[in-house]
Amino acid sequence: MTVVEDRPTTAGAPPPKRPNPVLALLRNSWRQLTSMRTALILLFLLAVAAVPGSIFPQRGVNRENVSEYFAANPKLAPILDRFFAFDVYASPWFAAIYLLLFTSLIGCVVPRLRDHFRALTTVPPDAPKRLERLPHHADGGRRPEEPAAVAAEIAKRLRRRRFRTRVRETPDGWTVAAEKGYLKETGNLLFHFAMLAVLVGVGFGQWYGWHANRLLIAGEDQGFCNAVTQHDESVLGPRVDASDLPNFCLWMTGFDSTFQENGIPRSFRANVRVSEDGGAYRATSFSVNDPLRLSGANINLIGQGYAPVLRYTDRFGATQEKVVAFLPTDNMLTSEGVVQFPDVNIDPATNTRDPELQMGFEGVYLPTGGDDGSALSKYPAEDNPVLYLAAYRGDLGLDSGKPGSVYALNRDQIQDGDLEKISGERPYVLRPGEKWTLDDGTTLEFVGTRRFATISIRYDPTQFLMLVGAVLGLAGLMLSLSVHRRRVWFRVVPADGGSAVEAGGLPRTDYAGFGDEFAALTRHIKEGTP
Amino acid sequence: MAELSNQLMALTVLAYLAAMVCYAAEYAFGRSSHIGRAATRELVGAGGPPIKQPAPAPVEKSRWVGRSAVVLNLIGLALHLGTTVSRGIAAERMPWGNMYEYILSATLVGAAVWAGVLIRKPAVRHLGLLVSLILVVLLGAAALVAYTPVGPLVPALNSYWFIFHVSTIIISSGIFLLGAVPAAMFLIKDGWDSGKRGFPYTLGRRVGDAGSLERLTFRLHAFAFPLFTFGALIAGPLWAEASWGRYWGWDPKEVWAFISWIVYAAYLHARATPSVKRTTATWIAIIGFVTMLMNLFGVNLFFEGLHSYA
Ligand code: HEM
To answer: Residue B151 and residue A260: Cβ atoms within 8 Å?
Structure first.
């Protein structure tokens, strides 16, 4: 909108006498890079480069979706992966674009800051010789007073309208030069510097921030303390050491949820007890949109579900109880999971474990089962809880050292026949409190369920500063878009014992309303109205 | 109430459709239209060659057609407002909880700003054809592909940030969407002025001055841009931080908001760069419009993300 040159001319820098070709090339490249055209092209490139990140699943957003994509497109996925299609926003080519833009931005705004500073400290220039050549021109009428007094009075009026004003005496009379709207450029620079600050903030946030996820089952026995080993997954920034994590412990006392009739959730809340820095436990709670803010970490509720409690009694009468989270697969909280008992059926006489006698159970939990025997929950709250299980006996394959999923049995072991299904074709139905006696006389009791919450623990040290930057940037942007820079001049010459006034105006930015403003201004000055 | 809202919705689309037909009819009467006459008068006043005044009958007729277009348009706006308000009352909350309501509200903003522009500058009435076309298409698409029965908000949306974030994005989207109309018309008119005579440039024959279309385009975009910046890049991340723990996570909706923002920033840049032609700059605004549509429909339909009203 400003009628600006493509880049501010570096005034007064005489061309070097014998240009060094390398320097000349460098200088030209720099000039190219910091031109508005290049900034435009880079902005465009950035927009285009962001697109694939919405088309392909992103590791930074959802790892599972990426694995699914790999499974569905085994040929294409590795090729795409080579081009960082699953890490678009961490890819070198994305970084190249924004780093170039960043450089261009610096190269562009630093000289503008200097120029603007200069403009702020120089006075409005004197009136051009012929005011009638300006885009706006008006006859200011005649006054009985002396030119000097008239000029002073006009200047006073302009100052009251917050014009920067300068009165000059010329051989044939007086001129008043006035300019207004410097805030436009100030705002524009503020905006661009705020952009720089936000970009730097993002970088620092990634370096010095960390985040982790944890599935937290209700109960004091299921609590945890903040440490990498106790997170299900954690990502520490390059400048964060595991020992830097803040020290707090947390356990969930209960989880409240309410649902609408159609099963869509209405509200969630996790009630917890937390101890910071080894202090006493205090009760608090958090929910969606209302995170728990601890010093050095914020805890957000991002998911929830049910964890069945199962008690297995082996052939020697020893009992073990386990609580395992079953992961929801739909909005009605149909949940899948496994319970594994590797250390059972140990003969007390010999104290040896028979690897053939480990037990695994796999199945589905429905908070509200139907009468039709369907394996899908009808409602997310526990109105008619039912657990469908299949039992397996044999080697669970947990000792192989290979990391396996805790939410599924080891398929290889089942395929190799090392882990054998001992229940019938149809899964066994258990309701809370019911006991299932297996073929070898051992029993599995479905004690009940507990709730679990998935939580995200996160710390980003620059978050707040970035907010400040963004708000300042927005203020700058609004100034930049709403303020207009314009100049007006008045020439006061002696005439018939009094003075004759003439006015000219020049909008320095594309400003459709300037004509009206100029007309009103000159009319007020002519008629002496305020 | 929900039923009422749906019926009002159908009436709204019909009213806009009728307005569109009238705008088109007025347009077809050509020179005898408001703008045409202004242009004629100007030419005569400027001492141009004498121009044969059109017969008075079509003048009257077209004026009436044009006026009824505006009246129908305003009736449509009232019905549109009714649809949105009754929807909100039926749901007992702001009518911004899902894609259907979102489009309903964004187009309402667009239509309201259009009415404002129309009242302040009657000379741009010729844009009504395109405006009502876009309204009919968007509302029709919302009703056919995005309709969602009334329901309360899911917990993730139940936050006061919801109000700030969604309202500012809806208002700015509505204005951006409307801004595409003078942008398209400017490109058409500019093409006509520079001698292009194929369709759609023929539409530019009877349109007012290209420069004022371009300025209107800019003013609408310059107004919407800071609002969008606030809604998408300040309130959105603030809410995301409270809700999901991270202020920015490249969720598909975030990606497309970012893309739209960058494209509109490029438009403002292009317009501020003297060496870039105004037509090029305006094309960038059109691309911005396409990215907004992508975010409105495409992202909800094609991609899976965290935004619950998908
Ligand atoms: C991070 C990337 C950038 C963004 C998001 C951005 C955004 C914007 C926006 C929204 C405006 C409009 C404000 C107005 O018209 O007053 C603007 C103006 C401007 N930008 Fe940028 N910009 C970026 C990078 C750059 C770069 C690299 C340059 C230098 C080549 C630059 C130079 C300018 C100039 C000179 C204006 C003033 C135009 C005027 O006077 O209206 N910007 N920028």
So the answer is: yes
Cα dihedral across residues A35, A36, A37, A41: positive or negative: positive
CA count, 13 A, side-chain hemisphere, B23: 24
Of A317, A333, A337, nearest in space to A325 by CA: A337
pLDDT of residue B306: 55
Contact yes or no for A454/A216 (Cβ under 8 A): yes
Specify the amino acid at residue A337: G
Across the interface, of B234, B259, B268, the residue whose CB is closest to A471 is B234
Q: Whose CA is nearest to atom 6 of ligand 1?
A: B265
What pLDDT is recorded for position B253?
A: 85
Classified as helix, coil or strand, A346 is: strand
Alpha carbon of A134 to ligand 1 centroid (Å): 28
Gap between the Cα atoms of A515 and A501, Å rounded: 19
Rounded-to-integer distance, Cα A470 and Cα B231, Å: 12
Distance CA B60, CA B63 (A): 5
Residue whose C-alpha is closest to residue B170's, from B131, B121, B112, B92: B112
Strand ranges (E), A422-522: 428-430, 435-437, 443-459, 486-495, 498-507
Joined tokens for residue A499: 């003075």
What is the A4 CA–ligand 1 centroid distance (Å)?
Answer: 12
SS3 A163: coil
Per-residue pLDDT averaged across A327-355, rounded? Answer: 89
Candidate of A31, A37, A192 to mutate for ligand 1, largest count of ligand atoms within 8 Å of Cβ:
A192
Q: Exposure of A275 by Cβ count < 10 A (0-12 exposed, 13-18 middle, 19+ buried)?
A: middle
Question: Position of tokens 């100030």?
Answer: A186
Domain-wise residue ranges, chain B = 2-302
Q: What is the mean pLDDT of residues A462-489?
A: 93
Residues 6+ positions from A454 with CB-CB distance below 8 Å: A213, A214, A215, A216, A301, A302, A303, A304, A305
User: Nearest 10 degrees: CA dihedral of B295, B298, B302, B304?
Assistant: 20
Question: By alpha-carbon position, which residue is closest to atom 7 of ligand 1?
Answer: B265
pLDDT band at A340 (very low <50, low <70, confident <90, very high): very high
**Could you tell me how many residues make up chain B?**
310
Nearest CA to ligand 1 atom 38: B272
Give the nearest partner residue to A463 out of B241, B265, B271, using CB atoms: B241
> Of A368, A398, A389, nearest to A380 (Cα)?
A368
Phi, psi of A230 (to 5 degrees): -100, 0
Say how far apart CA B141 and CA A496 lie, in whole Å.
74
What are the CA-CA distances from residue A388 to residues A423, A441, B16 (Å)?
11, 19, 56
Q: Where are the alpha helices (DSSP H) in A76-181?
A: 76-82, 92-121, 147-160
CA distance A245 to B20: 63
Centre of ligand 1 to C-alpha A510, Å, is: 16
Cα separations in angstroms, B199 against A47, B29, B191, B204, B205: 31, 18, 10, 9, 11
Range with the lowest mean pLDDT among A41-45, A223-227, A269-273, B67-71? B67-71
A29 pLDDT band, cuts 50/70/90, is: confident
Backbone angles phi, psi at B49, to 5 degrees: -65, 145
More confident residue, A319 or B251: A319
Residue A509 backbone phi and psi in degrees, to 5: -130, 165
**SS3 category, A384:** strand
Question: Which is nearest to B284 in space by CA: B199, B176, B172, B195?
Answer: B176
Contact present, A216 and A252 (Cβ < 8 Å)? yes
What DSSP character marks residue A232? S
